[in-house]
Design brief:
alpha+beta; globular; seven-stranded antiparallel sheet; three-stranded antiparallel sheet; Protein Transport Mog1p, Chain A; single chain; 34% strand
Length: 184
């Protein structure tokens, strides 16, 4: 383990560039472990226990760098050259670093299996978006004003207002020559 790059709780969270999003999502526990191999490669594993399944799914949609696909690992995941993110129940997991992609995937599967079966909830608001013309790679699910301001696309004439239990989802659509951003 790499000293200074590993930790748990709010102390480890303070070093994260996404701490404001994690706080908005209502994290219950956060742990980060960083490892270095003799070959010079590094691997970081972050596990966040969110307040509920919606919060973990929201973080997946906001922090992904590629399209979201059905798991395993997890209920849904996003994999890129630099890492893998997945959500399983109320757990959000990110595995990143310059280690080989197959190693990151094997570790993700192992972590997902250790989490075990959980209640999988794709938020109803997201599930009800019309499918015709939807660009699924553009779907974002917001649980608060910080995430909306940071990752949302401004739509003229609309303003997201958050009260208790407010959810906003946003996605891009293409129907022929028409290209629009839809928010609900």
């Amino acid at each position: 383990m790499l000293p200074g790059k590993s930790g748990e709780g709010t102390a480890a969270l303070a070093d994260s560039r996404e701490a404001h999003l994690f706080a908005e999502a209502g994290f219950l526990h956060y742990a980060r472990r960083a490892y270095a191999a003799d070959t010079g490669s590094e691997l970081t594993i972050e596990v966040l226990t969110a307040k509920d399944e919606k919060a973990a799914y929201s973080l997946l949609t906001l922090l992904r760098s590629s399209k979201i696909v059905a798991g395993p690992p997890g209920d849904a995941c996003s994999e890129s050259d630099s890492g893998l993110i997945f959500a399983r129940g109320a757990f959000w997991v990110r595995i990143s670093g310059n280690s080989p992609a197959d190693l990151r995937r094997r570790i993700a599967l192992s972590v997902s299996n250790r989490i075990g079966a959980r209640k999988s909830v794709r938020p109803t608001l997201v599930a009800r978006f019309p499918q015709a013309g939807l660009n699924p790679d553009s779907m974002r699910y917001f649980l608060g004003p910080i995430s909306l301001e940071t990752y949302g696309t401004e739509i003229p004439g609309t303003r997201g207002v958050f009260g208790p239990e407010t959810e906003i989802a946003q996605a891009n659509y293409s129907l022929g020559a028409l290209r629009e951003c839809f928010r609900s």
